[in-house]
Amino acid sequence: MAQFNRAVIFSGHMIDPPGRDKPRFPVECVQPVAASIRDQLMRWGTDARTLAVCGGAPGSDILFAEACLARGAHVRLLLPFSLEKFGRETFERTAPEWWWRFEALLPRCEVLCQPDVLGPVPYGETAYERNNLWILENVRSELPRDSTSALLVWDLQQTGDGPGGAADFAARAANLVREIVIINPTEFATR
After folding, report:
1. Are 12 and 60 spatial neighbours (Cβ–Cβ below 8 Å)?
2. Taking the domains of the chain in order of start, what are their residue ranges?
3. Cβ atoms within 10 Å of 93's Cβ, excluding its own
4. How far is the C-alpha of 96 from the C-alpha of 111, rounded, in Å?
5. What pLDDT shows up at residue 19?
6. Which of 59, 132, 160, 173 could form a disulfide with 165 if both were Cys (CB 3.0 to 4.6 A apart)?
7. If DSSP states are collapsed to H, E and C, what string results for 65-84?
8. Contact partners, residue 84, CB within 8 Å, separation at least 6
9. CA 90: distance to chain centroid?
């Protein structure tokens, strides 16, 4: 296994499905968000000695993983479900290009599925909430707090679509990482 001198952990919004009432990450924001992710990774000096850990959902997770791979980082995708269930449930309301982009990541990333590694989700938790904890604990077991940064693509709304979203991740990461940088996708939306 590679030796890492830093880690970047990530959480962010999925791309908005067509007709979403309150836009959170509209499709017109993909390019500026992708550029902001690339810029932040450059500022942090993300390279081959960097461990980058995220989920693999359509939208910001995929943008983050692609940008990290482009900089030579080791990308670890931690998926909340089996690959089949993840594809079926997570990509069903998105444009096919997101599934194609996800499939292109698979051979280039270390991919771990929560049920295979952690077993069934305990009563009272959701797979998404557990995934946030898993991302944090996964990196904490390898690198100290002062070597870990968090990047979020988050609209800064405290009430998201439920436990396990970006707001939950931000709250959990606050005392576990050196720094948190937030990219708000709604700032790029056309008015």
Report:
1. yes
2. 6-188
3. 15
4. 21
5. 84
6. 160
7. HHHHHHCCCEEEEEECCCHH
8. none
9. 13
What the block records as the tokens of 21 is 């009432």
Full-model pTM: 0.95
Q: Are 147 and 3 in contact (CB under 8 A)?
A: no
- Residue 19: how many other CB atoms lie within 10 Å: 6
The first and second tokens of residue 98, run together, are: 């997101």
User: How far does Cα 72 stand from its chain's mean position?
Assistant: 17
Judged by average pLDDT, the poorest of 15-24, 41-50, 79-88, 112-121 is 15-24
**By the 8 A CB rule, do 94 and 62 touch?**
no
Q: What is the pLDDT of residues 107-150, one digit of tens each?
A: 999 999 999 999 999 999 999 999 999 999 999 999 999 999 99
DSSP code of 127?
A: H
Task: Let me know: does 190 contact 28? Beta carbons within 8 Å.
Answer: yes
Nearest to 10 by CA among 180, 187, 189: 180
Rounded CA-CA distance 34/162 in Å is 25
CATH architecture of 6-188: 3-Layer(aba) Sandwich (3.40)
Average pLDDT over residues 27-42: 97
- The rounded distance, in Å, linking the Cα atoms of 124 and 141 is 25
